[in-house]
Amino acid sequence: MLSFPSISFGLTALAAVVNAAHYDVTVGKGGQLKFDPETLTAQAGDTVTYKFFAKNHAVAQSAFATPCQLQDKGIFSGFTPNSSPDVEAPTTFTITVNDTKPLWFYCPQTNGNHCQNGMVHSINAPASGNTFDAYKANALKAATPSTPPAGTLPVGGLRKLHIDVGFNGNLVFNPNNVTELVGTVFEFSYNPQNHSIVQSSFDKPCQPLTNGFAAPFVPTMQTPSGVTFEVTVEDSNPIWFYCAQTAKTHCQAGMVGSINAATTGDKTFAAFAALAAKAPPSTIPPNTPLLGTLKVNGTIIANVNGNVLNTTTLDPSLVGTVPPPGASYAPYIGGMAGGDQPADYQWAPTISDEAVELLQALEYISNALVSFLFSGYVRLAEGAWTGAYPTSITQTLGSLTAQALIHRKTYSDSLQHYSKPTVPLCQYNVTSSSVDTWLQDVQTILTLSIGAKIDVMSLAATNDSWMIPALATELGAQARMSAVLNMMQSHYASTAPREALMPYQLAYSYIANKYASNCGDGAKSFGKVFPALSVANKTVEPSSGRLLTIKVEIPSGSTGDHWVAWIGPWGGLQYTSVAADGTTTVPSNLSGHVWAVLTTAKDLKAHDIETKAVAGPEMIWTTQQWGS
Fold it and tell me: CA 105, CA 123: separation in Å to the nearest integer?
């Protein structure tokens, strides 16, 4: 049985992997009973990959005092046989270092007593006291036999078997007949020309197995193509697979494979290949991928709208310029996003002038969000920030980028349907010096987008209700985006039961004032651009971490009484008076991110705040960060 690997992360792991390093360690290379390097120093979040050579080695964790015995709940790679002393096995084992405490490892092979002959290894061994040399000396005197025995399952790391699809231009999987441990991830790597990977039964070698895995055809001329498909072995039952390409009848020509097939009897790999040679024409499920994880240069592709992944249009790291509103997207964008724009918007026969402005305002905000996500993801995928986050987090941010592009299609599709102008991209101040600064900018624009969308939905409900479903279905995705970014900033993932309504004019004002410049031909305004709200002298209640007061700067020329409008979860609008020196209290029942706007009137409804605003909005975190 197989499954697709999960993607998960925790706040501690996120903090640990910033600027994480990676190390390779060979095990038994050149026929030596040796790890190379024998010792290394690593930081929390760093990863170490073990590569295995002849003849049959494993990596096992022990305590310092018991070098050749697997410690309770210790890391273990599983044994990895390999006949070559110079060519690494296709199976690797990768661990993540969680802290800087010493880690002690050995090879538990009893045939030759590898551990007792000095085949040991350490990470972060002390320079004095319990040193690596002392550990190795203990191993030379350790009792036999070593543990655990062959057949023990891997734990504490990622065991991965790499399989080439179309190896060296031949119609073959390499390796094509493997015995592997439960828990191993199989990574199929595509090579030229145009192959697929489909699970079958033994009896029907070239036909899809019901509820089996399947990966699409990938036409490519590149080696490596960067396209992979991953599945995980969950039990020891035999697994059979094939390439469904009918040109040159790949399956029938021998492009088949097996996992944990019997070595004797009537259901061996050889018997499976013999059946395939006589099989009827191959088929593939109509939609892929199924029961596995398809990736392009590390970016997960959730679907390919059929069974062919068109690599001629792939640009996995989104290198280049941001596509303008109304442009057609490459097919993989929908796969990265997990879906496409609505198939049927159920547009009304006509559109009101108000609805045109509302859609254009959302597109203006969306342009900024897309541009910031696009820029940061490029730097994370292959630019200056490469390695700042683990692959799963970078993939998640790539998915958010693709989702933002799909959301923007809602506005451009609708405007183009009614022959109304779309809003061009501006130049944006995407000059974030660090990932943290970039994350805050993205979170700010994303929160503006969510709040403005709620505002637009309430305004469109009466005369242009067809807009509501398309906009409402975006809110959940953007709220999840916000939660991910909150956690990456060490904030609570869900700060309130409802999102805050933000008048779209104020959202426009914030972006126009802080981020946008030179919007080119077709530039459009959506109200007055207010100066930024300067916030200082924040006081925090020590025990709870709650923000108590702030001091705001009143713009020159603004006279009379002033208030701060606090825009919280939808319906949560409160006002506090501003003293002559700019000090104002923060309402005690606010939590998480809220918006503050300086006004010359109080008790306004949310839609009317912009009519009396003089500065802002400004997003303020009202609850203390974790760990601060």
Answer: 8
316: Cβ contacts below 8 Å, ≥ 6 apart: 226, 296, 297, 298, 299, 332, 381
Could you count the other beta carbons within 10 Å of the beta carbon of residue 561? 10
Number of other CB atoms surrounding residue 108 within 10 Å: 27
Contacts of 118 (CB under 8 A, 6+ apart): 33, 34, 136, 139, 140
The yes/no answer on whether domain 2-140 falls in CATH 2.60.40.420 is yes
pTM of the predicted model over 0.70: no
Q: Among candidates 155, 158, 62, which has minimal Cα distance to 104?
A: 62
Whether 320 shows a pLDDT value over 80: the answer reads no
Q: Structure tokens of 143?
A: 């009792």
pLDDT at 10: 33
Q: How many beta carbons lie within 10 A of that of residue 71, not counting itself?
A: 16
Phi/psi of residue 570, nearest 5 degrees? -45, 125
Please provide the size of the chain in residues: 628
3-state secondary structure 199-223: EECCCCCCCCCCCCCEEEEEECCCC
Token digits of residue 81: 């046989």
CB within 8 Å of 402: residues ≥ 6 apart? 333, 334, 335, 336, 337
Do residues 60 and 70 lie in contact, with contact meaning Cβ atoms separated by under 8 Å?
Answer: yes
Say what the pLDDT of residue 625 is.
43
The CA distance from 365 to 504, in Å, is: 9
Whether the CB-CB separation of 416 and 410 falls below 8 Å is answered with: no
Give the Cα separation of 290 and 3 in Å (integer): 10
Class of domain 332-493: mainly alpha
Please give the C-alpha separations between residue 168 and each of 83, 164, 311, 324, in angstroms, as whole numbers: 21, 9, 19, 40
Place of tokens 């399952």: 153
* 61/75 Cα distance (integer angstroms): 5
Beta bridge partners of 197: 215
Q: Collapsing DSSP states into helix, strand and coil, what is residue 66?
A: strand
Taking the C-alpha atoms of residue 532 and residue 598, their distance in angstroms, rounded to an integer, is 10
Query: Cis peptide before 605, with omega less than 30 degrees from 0?
Result: no
For 3-12, 52-61, 373-382, 583-592, which range has the lowest pLDDT when averaged over its residues? Answer: 3-12
CB 282 within 8 A of CB 246: yes
pLDDT at position 486 over 80: no
CATH class of the 161-295 domain in this structure: mainly beta
pLDDT in tens, 369-385: 999 988 888 788 767 88
Closest listed residue to residue 250, CA positions, set 286, 210, 283 = 283
Spatial separation of the C-alpha atoms in residues 527 and 510, rounded to whole Å: 11
* Phi then psi dihedrals of residue 10, to 5 deg: -125, 165
- Give Cβ neighbours of residue 412 (< 8 Å, ≥ 6 apart): 325, 326, 363, 422
pLDDT tens, position by position, 112-166: 999 999 999 999 999 999 999 999 999 999 999 999 998 899 999 999 999 999 9
The tokens describing 485, both together, are: 């970014």
Q: What is the dihedral of CA 401, 402, 407, 412, to 10 degrees?
A: 110
Render 541-577 in DSSP notation, one character per residue: -TTT--EEEEEEPPPTT--S--EEEEE-STT-EEEEE
d(CA 285, CA 212): 10
Instruction: Identify whether the C-beta of residue 452 lies closer than 8 Å to the C-beta of residue 361.
Output: yes
3-state class (DSSP) for residue 24: strand
Q: Quote the CA–CA distance of 472 and 486 in Å, as a whole number.
A: 21
